[in-house]
Amino acid sequence: MPIEITILGCGSATPVPDRNPSSQFVRINQTGILIDCGEGSQMQMTKFNVKHSKIDVILISHLHGDHYFGLAGLISTMHLMSRKRKLILAGPHELWRLLEDHFLVSQTKLSFEIDFKPIHSPKEGLLFENEDCSINTFPLHHRIPCQGFVVKEKQGGFHLIPEMLKLYKLPITKLKELKMGKDIQLENGDIIPNSRVAIPPPIPHSYAYCSDTAPFEELVTYIQNVNLIYHEATFDESLAERAHQTFHSTAKQAATHAKDANAGKLIIGHFSSRYRETELLLNEACSVFPNTIIAKDGLSILSE
Ligand SMILES: [Zn+2]
Ligand SMILES: [Zn+2]
User: Fold this and answer.
1) CA of 45 to the centre of ligand 2 (A)
2) 215 cis-preceded (ω within 30 degrees of 0)
3) How many Cα atoms are found within 13 Å in the side-chain-facing hemisphere of 235?
4) Count of H helices and E strands in the chain?
5) Residue 268 C-alpha to ligand 1 middle, in angstroms?
6) In this structure, which ligand is nearest to the CA of 269?
7) How far is the CA of 77 from the centre of ligand 1 (A)?
8) Nearest ligand to the C-alpha of residue 22?
9) Best exposed site among 70, 144, 147, 163 by fewest CB in 10 Å?
10) How far is the centre of ligand 2, averaged over its atoms, from the C-alpha of 7 (Å)?
11) Pairing assessment for the beta strands 87-92 and 4-9 based on DSSP bridges
């Protein structure tokens, strides 16, 4: 099943009227994931119909303000709305101290539990999984510790063909093995190949979020073959030196990562506020990786 991404903010450090700082909502089956939560993300959620009650997991890539200044406010709203469901929150380990101070000084005892998963960057590996998806994290190359995320759909079981099950009179006790893709041996010794009675599940979809980063070779090893990548593209090629100094990427560098990772589709975002129009950035990215989309606040994209 495709993963759906809704861009809530695709700006960088300074907000501009139609471009909020970083935030996006990712829906994978029944699981809702908010990635980064820049200032103003709550208003964007209201504007683009993303309900905070649908958020199960929040991921924060790093502690530059344009990626998390909206978080305390969002958690506060969840509390005021009497949320009871546990919230999974993963981010830099120092984040917890910042949040605790917020709620300590305002004497707020949250109405729900936060299961905080501290990330000690550089870290590579599994952060969270449930019946819908797994979330892995990987290190990026930025001025302060920064992590990217890969959200991957869980592999579904084989689809059984009811007519064929009837034809072979297969007992119910064998269905579990068939769903796992196994061949079945009948009591008379006959072997029924799985391919006669079941269809393999579709290849699971995957999505990679590459937050603030300078380009580096190993990045593509973490995001190989994903269906969709969001990658920062703060600058155009004429400002490559500025990108290098500030540990950011140009649109062309983002596209090179997507190409080298053999990705299906690329969304570029995190644009510097100096760009009123983003066509230049799109053109530069498309010259390397044609299947590139320009992020826009409110845009929804599927991983297919
Ligand atoms: Zn940023
Ligand atoms: Zn940053």
Assistant:
1) 22
2) no
3) 18
4) 10, 18
5) 13
6) 1
7) 24
8) 1
9) 163
10) 18
11) unpaired
For residue range 260-278, list pLDDT tens digits in order.
999 999 999 999 999 999 9
Alpha-carbon distances of 10 from 38, 259, 294, rounded to whole Å = 10, 21, 9
Give the pLDDT confidence of 92-144 residue by residue, as tens digits: 999 999 999 999 999 999 999 999 999 999 999 999 999 999 999 999 999 99
Ligand closest to Cα of 145 equals: 2
- List % helix, strand, coil for the chain (3-state, nearest 5): 25, 30, 45
Rounded distance from Cα 35 to ligand 1 centre (Å): 13
Give the pair of three-digit tokens for residue 225: 């073959």
Q: Give the model's pLDDT for residue 133.
A: 97
Strand, coil or helix: 194? helix
Q: What is the distance between the alpha carbons of residues 207 and 18, in angstroms, rounded to a whole number?
A: 25
User: Which of 77, 12, 69 shows the shortest CA–CA distance to 46?
Assistant: 77
Ligand nearest to the CA of 13: 1
Per-residue model confidence (pLDDT) at position 17: 87
- Phi/psi for 272 (5° steps) reads -60, 145
Contact indicator for 166, 126 with CB cutoff of 8 Å = no
Distance 1 CA to ligand 2 centre (A): 32
Q: How buried is residue 240: exposed, middle or buried, by Cβ count under 10 Å (0-12/13-18/19+)?
A: middle
pLDDT at 208 over 90: yes
pTM: 0.92
Tens-digit pLDDT profile for residues 172-188? 888 888 999 999 888 88
Q: Of 56, 66, 236, 297, which is the active-site residue?
A: 66
Task: Report every protein residue that has its C-beta within 5 angstroms of ion ligand 2.
Answer: 64, 212
Known catalytic residue at 66? yes
Q: Which two tokens stand for residue 236?
A: 């155009």
- Residue 97: CB atoms within 10 A of its CB come to 10
C-alpha 142 to ligand 2 mean position (Å): 7
